Amino acid sequence: MAVPKYQIRARQTPSTVTVYQAYAPQIGLPAARDGRFPALWRRDRMTWIKPSFLWMMYRCGWGLKEGQETVLAIEITREGFEWALEHACLAHYEHGLHPDRATWKRQLKRAPARVQWDPERDLHLRPLPHRSLQLGLTGEAAQRYVDEWVVAITDVTALAHDLHARVRDGDAEGARRLLPEERPCPLPDGFLDHLRR
Question: Is the predicted pLDDT of residue 197 greater than 80, yes or no?
Fold first, then answer.
C-alpha cells in the first residue's frame, strides 16, 4: 500500500512521540546524561525536531557532521507534540492553502512553530516520493519543549554509526532490522489541514 504523501510517522507510545535532534557533544552528552537540555542550550533560537530517524541521518550525516556528532532520541509528550502542530504555520507560502502571501507572512510571524515537509529518505539516504515532517519550535513552543514536553533523552549515536556501517558494507537487511519502528501518528480528521494541501 502506498504511503500518503503527507503523513507523520514516528516511534510512539499512547502518551509520547519520539523525535530526533543532533548536537555537538557539549550539548548532546549532558542532555542524554541528565535527561534535560543543559543551560548551554539556547532558548532564543529556532530548534528543529524530526520524527524520522532516517531524515535525521540524512541531516547529520549519520552523526559525522561537525556540530552534529551526538544524535539524540527525545521522547516528548504526545500532548506537547500535538500542541506544536496545532499552533504551527507552514514554513513556505502555498497557493490555495493560504489566502495570500501577506496573510501567510503574518501567520508565520505569530506562530510559535513551523512545519516543513521534506522528502523522506531510504537507507541510502536517497529521497522517497512521500514527505517527512520537520517541526521548528521557537518562542513559547521552544520553552514548552525544554521545560514541559521532554520525557526522556537517549543518546543513539552508536545506533547511527552501526546502521551506517551496515549500509556501507551492503548489509541493508541487517540495517533495516535495527531501524526504530515508525508508525503513522493517529490524529483527528482535518488536524493537519492548515499544514498541507
Answer: no
